[in-house]
C-alpha cells in the first residue's frame, strides 16, 4: 500500500511535523519501505482473534477522590519557554 | 413548504469531585492561573493517569437515573488533536465503550404533556484548559487549571423538535444532575455546557437534513435564541437555493446570531485508540445495586408523587419538582400550613416573582419555608386576608419580623371579622355616600355590579384593608338591598 | 575499583576497603578520561554524585547496611531526575530539567545509590544502534568503529567499559537485551508492570519496561529488586510482591526444562552466533537442564506488528512535545501552527519523525482496522504461542540478536534493516513476558548474547539460570581492551 506525496503531507500535518518540499520524496520513500514491512501482516489469518491491548489482562484500579497536589506553579513554570502572569504564552489563538 | 426541526444536544457536565479525573489536583473554580495544574495536568513527560473513583460513581449514578444500560467494562480512548489548552496533544475520553449506554429522560412540555427524549450514551472524559485571548503582545495566555476536570458528556438522540423542547430537556438534565449532587449546573461558570446540533427537513421526510453544531451555549435563554436563529438561517438558506454546510458555529448573544467558527481543526481525524496507560474499568453488578439503593427520589418520581400526594396538576408538579431545593421548600410550606394548593400558588407566584426580581436562588430566599407556611396558616384561619398577606409577605422579605404573627402584630394587620364592627363601619360608609346609595338602589342589575365595587373600595379604605372581604361583601349587599 | 561488580562493591564498602566518596571520585575521573571515546554520557552529575556518596557514607557510619548503599550507577536519560537535564537523547527536550524524580530514581536514591549522570540513548528510545541521539552516536567499547546496540546504548557502553558497575535502561523491543548482547553484559527486561513507568518518559506505553544492565546476573538481581515494585501512580503497575531475586540465584538447575524454538535457527541468523548458543545449551544440560524443541509459529509476524503498535502509541505519546510548556521552542513562531510544526520538525530527529508518521498513519481513519487492530490481533497470537509453550518448558532459550555489532553508519540508509535486528527480542515486549540476555562468547572479538525468556513474573528464574551459567563460564568477566 504505497503512499502518495499528498497523503504524506496530510500525515505530516496531522502530526504537526513541518515537512519541506525537499524532504518529501525521501520521507515518502522511507515510509513506503516501512509500510512494505508492515503490510506482510495482511497475510496472517486473524479471524475470530480478539485484539490484545495490554499484555497483562488486568483491570483499572480506582483512586480515592482526594486533593493531594499542592500549587507548584513557580517550579513547573521555571522550565517553560514563555510565561506571563502565570499563563503559558502561545501565538494568538483565533477562534 | 412545511419544515420540521431536528435537534440533538450534547451536554458536558463538570462532575463535582474534589480532585480531577486523572490527577489529585483541586477542581475549585476561579483559582489563580496554573495553581491547580499538577505534573499530570501539565502533560509533563513521564506522567501517567490514575482514575478517580468518585467520577466513576457519579457517572454510574447518572446512568441509573436515566435507566441506562451500564456495561460491565468501559474503556478510555485517546482523542488526538493539537490545541494549546490540550497539554498532552490528546484528550482522554471514551469512544467505543462508554461507561453509560442507552437511556432516556422524560420532559414536561409547556402544555403539560410528557415527552420521552432518548439518550444515546454518556461518557467520562477530561476537560481542557482555557485560552485567554486578551492580548499579551499578540500572544494568547493558557491557563491549565481546568485541564483534567472530570466531564460527563451526555449525548441525546435527535428526538428534540423545537427550541422550547430543547430548553426543557436541558433544564431537566440540569435538575437531574443537581438532584443527584454530581454537578452544580452553573452554566455561567461553565459547569454545564451545551452544544446544539440543529438541522431542518421538509415535514414528512424521513432523512435528516445536514446539521450544524452550535457550540458552548451557556444559558437556557441563549439556547432557545440560538436554536431559533439557526433554524431560521437554515430554512432561509435552503429556500434561497443554498445548502447547509456541516460545520461548527458559535452563538453571539449580542448580535443574536450564529456565525461559523474559524475551524479549530478543519476536518479532523482524531485517530481514537484505547489509551494504553489506562486499563479497562470494570463495573460490578453489586456496585450498581448498592448505588441504586442509595439514589435520592428523582424528578420524575417526585413529580408523580406531588401529583398524587398533593393533588397538583402535572404542570404545577413539574415546576415545583424542577429542583431539589425548590421541591424541599415547597414540601415544608405545604406541611406547615396543611394546604398544598395554597402553598403551590404562593411558591409559584409571589415567592417566584420575588426571587426572579432580585435574581436569587431558592436557597437564598429571604422568606423561609417555615415563615411562608406560617403566613399561609393565618390566611386559612382568617387572621388575615389574601390581600393583607401580600403585605405580610413583603414585610417578611424585608426582614421586618421573624414570623408572620410578629409582623401581623407589629403592624396591626389582623383582619376585622367582628360583624358588628364591620356593620358599623359599613353604616358609616353608606351614610357618607348617600347619593351613590340612592343611585345604586335606582339602577338595574347590570349597572349595580359596577357600583358595588365602589362601595367595596370605600369599605376597604375605611377599614384600612383589614375588614374581612367575604363578610364585607355579604353585609354590604344586605345593606344596599335595603 | 572499576573492575568490581555491584556485589563486590557492596562487600568492599561494608569492609571499609574504601568509601563511597572515594569510589565515586575514582569513577568520575575515569569517566572524564575515557568517555570521550564512547560518548556514553549526556550529563555527568559530578557534584551531586559526590554529595550523594558522602551522604551514603554517613548513613553507613550510622549503622545502616544495604546492598546498594553507596553504589555508583547512572540512569538512561529518559528517567526523570529532578533538577537535572533529562533529554531522551533529543533536541526537543533541550533545557528540560525534570521537575520531579521517576519512581525508579526515587527508589534507587532511597536505597542509597550514587547517580553519576545520565546516559546516552537512541532518541526517545527508538533505535537499535544508539546512532539517532541528538548528542551523537555511542561507540561500542569492544570496537569503537561499531555500534553498542540501542536504545540503551549509553548504559551498555558505560558499564561494558567499566566506567560504572551497573546502569538502568529501558526495553520496548529489546533495548536492554540487545545492547547487553552486543557489549558482553547481562541485562533483563522484567514482566510488563513489574517496574513503575512513572517518570520513565514513554515511547510505547504498552511495551516499555525499565530494567538493569550490569556485568553479572547477580548485579542485575540486586538492582532489579530495588527498582521493582507496585506504584500507585502508574495504573499499569502490578500489585504483586517482588520476589527475592538474590535468594533465587543459587537454586540448582536440575530439572529445568529449556525450550528451543525451531523458528529461531533459520536463515537470518549468523551461524557462528548459533554455535555459541548451542554451546550454552550444552553447558546448561551439564547443570541438569533438559532441552526440548518447541515452536513459536507466529514469531515472524512480530516485527510488523511491533512496528505498528509502537509507532502508533509513540505518535500519541510524543504529541505533548509542542514547544508550549517545556523544552525546545522554535524561534519567532509566526503563528500557532508554525510554532507546532517548526518546533517539532527542528526538535525531533529523522527516525523519531518517521515513526511518528507511521504511527499517525496506522491510527488514521480508514487504516485503523487494517493496521492497528490487526497488529493487536497478531499480538494476541504471539502471546498465545508463549502461553502454550510455557505449559511444557520453564524457559525459552535462543540468540539475542541475529547478527554481531555492525559498523557505525552501516544501516543508516535503510532503517528497515535495523528493524529486522529485533526479531528475537520483540516478542517478549508484545506478550509482556520477562526476557534476559547474558554473555555467551565472542565471534571475531565481538560479544555474542544468549537470550532467556520466562513466563510472567519469572524474573527470578531467569536470573537464576544466568547466574548458574556464570558460575561455569567466564565470558562475562572479560573486559574490552583499552578500558
TrEMBL record, chain A:
Pfam families: GatC. SUPFAM superfamilies: Glu-tRNAGln amidotransferase C subunit. It catalyses: L-glutamyl-tRNA(Gln) + L-glutamine + ATP + H2O = L-glutaminyl-tRNA(Gln) + L-glutamate + ADP + phosphate + H(+); L-aspartyl-tRNA(Asn) + L-glutamine + ATP + H2O = L-asparaginyl-tRNA(Asn) + L-glutamate + ADP + phosphate + 2 H(+). Keywords: ATP-binding, Ligase, Nucleotide-binding, Protein biosynthesis, Transferase. Its EC number is 6.3.5.-. The keyword Transferase applies. GO terms for biological process: glutaminyl-tRNAGln biosynthesis via transamidation; regulation of translational fidelity; translation. Belongs to the GatC family. Heterotrimer of A, B and C subunits. PANTHER family: GLUTAMYL-TRNA(GLN) AMIDOTRANSFERASE SUBUNIT C, MITOCHONDRIAL (PTHR15004:SF0). Allows the formation of correctly charged Asn-tRNA(Asn) or Gln-tRNA(Gln) through the transamidation of misacylated Asp-tRNA(Asn) or Glu-tRNA(Gln) in organisms which lack either or both of asparaginyl-tRNA or glutaminyl-tRNA synthetases. The reaction takes place in the presence of glutamine and ATP through an activated phospho-Asp-tRNA(Asn) or phospho-Glu-tRNA(Gln). This is Aspartyl/glutamyl-tRNA(Asn/Gln) amidotransferase subunit C. The lineage of its organism: Bacteria, Pseudomonadati, Pseudomonadota, Gammaproteobacteria, Pseudomonadales.
Amino acid at each position: 500500500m504505497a503512499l502518495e506525496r499528498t497523503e504524506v503531507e496530510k500525515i505530516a500535518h496531522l502530526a504537526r511535523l513541518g515537512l519541506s518540499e525537499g524532504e518529501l520524496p525521501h520521507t515518502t520513500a522511507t515510509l513506503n519501505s516501512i509500510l512494505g514491512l508492515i503490510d506482510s501482516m495482511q497475510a496472517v489469518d486473524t479471524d475470530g482473534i480478539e485484539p490484545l491491548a495490554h499484555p497483562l489482562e488486568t483491570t483499572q484500579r480506582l483512586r480515592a477522590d482526594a486533593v493531594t497536589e499542592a500549587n507548584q506553579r513557580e517550579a513547573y513554570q521555571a522550565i517553560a519557554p514563555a510565561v506571563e502572569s502565570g499563563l503559558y504564552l502561545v501565538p494568538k489563538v483565533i477562534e | 413548504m412545511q419544515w420540521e426541526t431536528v435537534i440533538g444536544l450534547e451536554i458536558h457536565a463538570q462532575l463535582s469531585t474534589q480532585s480531577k479525573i486523572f490527577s489529585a489536583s483541586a477542581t475549585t473554580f476561579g483559582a489563580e492561573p496554573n495553581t491547580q495544574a499538577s505534573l499530570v495536568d501539565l502533560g509533563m513527560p513521564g506522567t501517567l493517569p490514575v482514575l478517580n473513583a468518585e467520577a466513576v460513581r457519579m457517572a454510574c449514578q447518572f446512568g441509573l437515573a436515566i435507566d441506562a444500560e451500564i456495561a460491565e467494562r468501559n474503556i478510555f480512548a485517546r482523542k488526538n488533536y493539537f490545541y494549546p489548552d490540550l497539554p498532552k496533544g490528546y484528550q482522554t475520553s471514551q469512544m467505543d465503550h462508554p461507561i453509560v449506554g442507552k437511556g432516556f429522560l422524560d420532559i414536561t412540555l409547556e402544555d403539560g404533556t410528557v415527552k420521552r427524549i432518548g439518550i444515546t450514551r454518556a461518557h467520562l472524559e477530561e476537560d481542557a484548559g482555557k485560552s485567554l485571548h486578551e492580548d499579551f503582545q499578540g500572544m494568547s495566555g493558557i491557563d491549565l487549571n481546568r485541564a483534567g476536570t472530570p466531564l460527563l458528556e451526555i449525548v441525546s438522540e435527535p428526538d428534540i423538535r423545537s427550541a422550547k423542547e430543547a430548553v426543557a430537556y436541558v433544564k431537566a438534565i440540569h435538575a437531574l444532575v443537581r438532584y443527584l449532587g454530581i454537578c452544580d449546573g452553573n452554566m455561567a461558570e461553565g459547569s454545564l455546557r451545551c452544544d446544539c446540533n440543529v438541522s431542518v427537513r421538509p415535514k414528512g421526510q424521513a432523512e435528516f437534513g445536514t446539521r450544524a453544531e452550535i457550540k458552548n451555549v451557556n444559558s437556557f435563554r441563549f439556547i432557545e435564541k440560538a436554536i431559533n436563529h439557526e433554524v431560521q438561517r437554515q430554512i432561509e438558506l435552503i429556500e434561497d437555493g443554498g445548502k447547509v454546510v456541516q460545520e461548527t458555529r458559535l452563538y453571539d448573544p449580542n448580535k443574536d446570531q450564529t456565525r461559523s467558527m474559524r475551524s479549530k481543526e478543519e476536518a479532523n481525524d482524531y485517530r481514537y485508540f484505547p489509551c494504553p496507560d489506562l486499563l479497562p474499568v470494570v463495573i460490578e453488578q453489586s456496585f450498581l445495586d448498592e448505588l441504586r439503593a442509595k439514589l435520592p427520589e428523582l424528578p420524575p418520581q417526585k413529580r408523580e408523587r406531588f401529583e398524587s400526594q398533593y393533588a397538583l396538576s402535572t404542570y404545577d408538579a413539574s415546576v415545583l419538582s424542577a429542583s431539589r431545593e425548590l421541591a424541599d421548600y415547597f414540601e415544608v410550606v405545604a406541611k406547615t400550613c396543611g394546604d398544598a394548593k395554597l402553598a403551590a400558588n404562593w411558591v409559584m407566584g409571589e415567592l417566584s416573582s420575588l426571587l426572579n426580581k432580585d435574581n436569587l436562588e431558592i436557597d437564598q430566599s429571604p422568606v423561609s419555608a417555615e415563615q411562608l407556611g406560617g403566613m399561609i396558616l393565618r390566611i386559612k384561619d382568617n387572621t388575615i386576608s389574601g390581600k393583607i398577606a401580600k403585605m405580610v409577605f413583603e414585610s417578611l422579605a424585608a426582614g421586618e419580623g421573624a414570623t408572620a404573627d410578629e409582623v401581623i402584630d407589629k403592624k396591626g394587620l389582623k383582619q376585622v371579622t367582628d360583624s358588628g364592627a364591620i356593620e358599623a363601619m359599613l353604616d358609616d360608609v353608606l351614610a357618607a355616600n348617600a347619593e351613590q346609595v340612592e343611585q345604586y338602589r335606582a339602577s338595574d342589575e347590570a349597572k349595580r355590579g359596577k357600583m358595588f365595587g365602589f362601595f367595596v373600595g370605600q369599605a376597604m379604605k375605611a377599614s384600612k384593608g383589614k375588614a374581612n372581604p367575604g363578610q364585607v361583601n355579604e353585609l354590604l349587599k344586605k345593606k344596599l338591598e335595603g | 575499583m572499576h573492575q568490581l561488580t555491584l556485589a563486590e562493591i557492596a562487600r568492599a564498602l561494608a569492609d571499609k576497603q574504601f568509601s563511597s566518596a572515594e569510589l565515586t571520585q575514582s569513577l568520575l575521573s575515569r569517566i572524564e578520561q575515557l568517555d570521550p571515546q564512547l560518548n556514553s554520557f549526556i550529563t555527568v552529575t559530578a557534584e551531586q554524585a559526590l554529595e550523594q556518596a558522602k551522604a551514603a557514607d554517613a548513613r553507613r557510619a550510622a549503622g545502616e547496611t544495604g546492598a546498594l548503599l553507596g553504589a555508583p550507577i547512572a540512569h538512561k536519560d529518559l528517567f526523570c531526575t529532578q533538577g537535572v537535564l533529562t533529554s531522551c537523547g533529543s533536541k526537543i527536550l533541550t533545557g528540560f530539567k525534570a521537575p520531579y524524580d521517576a519512581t525508579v530514581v526515587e527508589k534507587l536514591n532511597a536505597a542509597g545509590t550514587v547517580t553519576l549522570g545520565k546516559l546516552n540513548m537512541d532518541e526517545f528510545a527508538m533505535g537499535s544502534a544508539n546512532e539517532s541521539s541528538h548528542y551523537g552516536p555511542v561507540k561500542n567499547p569492544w570496537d569503537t568503529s561499531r555500534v553498542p546496540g540501542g536504545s540503551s546504548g549509553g548504559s551498555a557502553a558505560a558499564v561494558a567499559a567499566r566506567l560504572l558497575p551497573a546502569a538502568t535502561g529501558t526495553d520496548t523491543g529489546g533495548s536492554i537485551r540487545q545492547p547487553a548482547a552486543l557489549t558482553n553484559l547481562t541485562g533483563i527486561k522484567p514482566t510488563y508492570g513489574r517496574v513503575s513507568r512513572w517518570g520513565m518518559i514513554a515511547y510505547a506505553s504498552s511495551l516499555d519496561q525499565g530494567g538493569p544492565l550490569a556485568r553479572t546476573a547477580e548485579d542485575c538481581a540486586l538492582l532489579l529488586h530495588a527498582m521493582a515494585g507496585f506504584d500507585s501512580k502508574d495504573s499499569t503497575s502490578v500489585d504483586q510482591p517482588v520476589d527475592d531475586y538474590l535468594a533465587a540465584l543459587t537454586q540448582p538447575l536440575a530439572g529445568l526444562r529449556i525450550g528451543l524454538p525451531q523458528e529461531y535457527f533459520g536463515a537470518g541468523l549468523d551461524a557462528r552466533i548459533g554455535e555459541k548458543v548451542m554451546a550454552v545449551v550444552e553447558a546448561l544440560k551439564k547443570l541438569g537442564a533438559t532441552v526440548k524443541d518447541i515452536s513459536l509459529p507466529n514469531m515472524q509476524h512480530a516485527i510488523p506488528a511491533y512496528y505498528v503498535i509502537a509507532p502508533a502509541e509513540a505518535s500519541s505519546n510524543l504529541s505533548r512535545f509542542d514547544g508550549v510548556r517545556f523544552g525546545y521552542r522554535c524561534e519567532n513562531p509566526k503563528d500557532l501552527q508554525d510554532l507546532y510544526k517548526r518546533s517539532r520538525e527542528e526538535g525531533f530527529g529523522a527516525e523519531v519523525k518517521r515513526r511518528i508518521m507511521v504511527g499517525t498513519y496506522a491510527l488514521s481513519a480508514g487504516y485503523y482496522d487494517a493496521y492497528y487492530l490487526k497488529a493487536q490481533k497478531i499480538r494476541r497470537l504471539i502471546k498465545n504461542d508463549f502461553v502454550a509453550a510455557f505449559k511444557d518448558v520453564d524457559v525459552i532459550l535462543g540468540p539475542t540478536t541475529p547478527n554481531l555489532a555492525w559498523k557505525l553508519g552501516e544501516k543508516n540508509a535503510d532503517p528497515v534493516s535495523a528493524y529486522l535486528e529485533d526479531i528475537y527480542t520483540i516478542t517478549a515486549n508484545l506478550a509482556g513476558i520477562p526476557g534476559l540476555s547474558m554473555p555467551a562468547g565472542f565471534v571475531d572479538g565481538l560479544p555474542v548474547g544468549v537470550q532467556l525468556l520466562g513466563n510472567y513474573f519469572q524474573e527470578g528464574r531467569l536470573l537464576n539460570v544466568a547466574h548458574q551459567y556464570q558460575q561455569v563460564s567466564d565470558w562475562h568477566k572479560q573486559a574490552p581492551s583499552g578500558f
